Amino acid sequence: MDAKDRQIIRALQGDGRMTNQDLADTVNLSPSPCLRRLRNLENSGAIRGFMADVDASAYGLPITVFVRIRLERHNEEDVQRFERHVQTIHEILECHVLTGAMDYQLRVVVSDLEAYETFIRTRIHPIGGIASIDTSFVYGTVKKTAVFPQLD
Asked: Among residues 22, 29, 30, which one has the least CA distance to residue 4?
């Protein structure tokens, strides 16, 4: 991936609905080479898709929660069981494997505190093998972007 490919990606992260002509103008290419580069980025998997950035509150899920989980055991079976279950739980938007005291961090969206309690009791606890759950509720967002920083 070269600097021009990164320019294309950054432009599309800012506005995924721009036309190829607008994209080509933004990155100083003619439309045909721009489209060819875009298709190559898609085919290589560097661009995995396009989606709408939706306001979770407007959708009806105003509560964002970061949930950190530590497993009781770190054997292959328990780790795979946990990760397999996480894949099926729709309230979990992201799951990251961590270093340090906790094993995973989840980004979860729910409609209210009661829904969060139900989520923990009916979706997380039944997984089993969990040593601890640490919860932080988001009460404000200072910065949120999907645009990668420019590389030198």
From this structure: 29
